[in-house]
Design brief:
Elements: E1 4-10, H1 18-33, E2 43-49, H2 51-54, H3 64-78, E3 87-89, H4 95-104, H5 109-113, H6 116-124, H7 132-135, H8 137-147, E4 152-155, H9 160-176, E5 190-193, H10 222-230, H11 251-259, H12 262-274, H13 279-305, H14 308-337
Parallel strand pairs: 1-2, 2-3, 4-5
The structure holds iron/sulfur cluster.
Iron/sulfur cluster (SF4) binds at residues 234-235, 238, 245, 247, 250, 252-253, 272, 277, 279, 282-283.
Length: 348
């Protein structure tokens, strides 16, 4: 088997927060740098800025470029290496739209309406109706993955239905069309269940989210982290410093689990339970440890912020590489479908 290829992406929503870091970026960098016993990379990684996907829920594009650059700087600061992993905007590789159109003919609307992830979104966002493009976003996702012949898709459990749709579309295409030389054009990508480490928001809500205002950004200074941490929700029954607490229900402790290692974590747990540790000191320590982790990212971010031309060039080069791969795949697709043929078997 050749190198496995992974395509992962994010919508351009601007500066990223700790939830993005622990939920995705850390995994991306690990996959990008993973070597086998011979020192070869296990995965080829491509990272997509999914700007078309943004349109499924918002038509407002006024800040999309600023948000793209802000997000890209966070990717680079967190360790995405553009030499190893091309980074590119979906809208700048036109083959995404072309393949999406072809794939739209290979799946029924009722199949898409049965997508459980979509049903959850409609419920969570209180949506009364869907635009056509939103119903079809798993099809666009399939085009994103298969354009680069991604054969592994790292997903959380909730994303498995989308991978299944991608597999169905690949299968249907391959059953219908065959390339004269390569035969089956698309791989059927395998989901790779990845344990994403999700962080709860500072307000104790299920998820860190910019729209809920409960985030710590990767670019927050130590002072900003300390300030935000002061408002973090803890065990509400631990009112005075010496009251015993329950770390298992405390937001701050869940951050300690991620950012405070080994023995220190055990001491915090014991101190909280016995009442010898107060929330003020505990939060201070947690903020310090988060800032320690973020310090190298902030330094790198500063470098890229003062070298914006470099960032823009990284994007241009990534898009050139992506177009090359995508163009090659689309040639195979058109050839398999006999679209654009110029010679005929009969006398037309
Ligand atoms: S001492 Fe720390 S872990 Fe315990 S409730 Fe307070 S903030 Fe949470």
């Amino acid at each position: 088997m050749g190198t496995l290829r992974i395509l992962s992406g994010m919508r351009p929503t601007g500066k990223l927060h700790l939830g993005h870091y622990t939920g995705a970026l850390e995994n991306w960098v690990e996959q990008q740098n993973l070597l086998d016993e011979n020192g070869s990379r296990v995965y080829e990684t491509c990272f997509l800025i999914a700007d078309y996907h943004n349109l499924t829920t918002s038509l407002d594009t006024g800040e999309i470029y600023t948000h793209t650059i802000d997000m890209l700087i966070d990717w680079l600061a967190a360790g995405v290496d553009p030499e190893k992993s091309p980074v590119f905007r979906q809208s700048q590789v036109k083959e995404h739209a072309e393949l999406f159109l072809i794939f739209s003919m290979l799946i029924t609307s009722s199949r898409l309406e049965r997508n459980p992830t979509l049903k959850e979104q409609v419920r969570d966002l209180n949506m009364e109706s869907l635009v056509y493009g939103h119903l079809g976003y798993p099809v666009l996702q399939a085009a994103d993955i298969l354009l680069y012949k991604g054969n592994v898709v790292p997903v959380g459990e909730d994303q498995i239905p989308h991978v299944e749709i991608t597999r169905e579309i690949a299968r249907k295409f391959n059953n219908h069309y065959s390339h004269p030389v390569v035969g089956e054009v698309f791989p059927e990508p395998e989901p790779k269940i990845t344990k994403f480490s999700r962080l709860v928001g500072l307000d104790g809500k299920a998820k860190m989210s910019k729209s809920l205002g409960n985030t710590i950004f990767l670019s927050d200074t130590p002072d900003e982290v300390q300030k935000k941490m002061r408002n973090a929700v803890t065990d509400t029954q631990k009112i005075r410093k010496n009251d015993p607490g329950r770390p298992e229900i405390c937001t701050v402790f869940s951050y300690h689990e991620k950012f405070t290692g080994g023995e220190d974590l055990a001491c915090i747990e014991a101190g909280c339970r016995s009442g010898s540790l107060g929330c003020v000191d505990c939060k201070k320590l947690c903020a310090e440890n988060i800032s320690k982790e973020l310090a190298p990212l902030i330094e790198k971010r500063r470098y890229y912020e003062t070298n914006l031309d470099l960032v823009k060039n990284i994007l241009i080069e990534g898009e050139n590489k992506a177009r090359e791969i995508a163009g090659h795949t689309m040639q195979e697709v058109r050839s398999a479908m006999q679209l654009g043929e110029t010679s005929f078997s009969r006398n037309y």
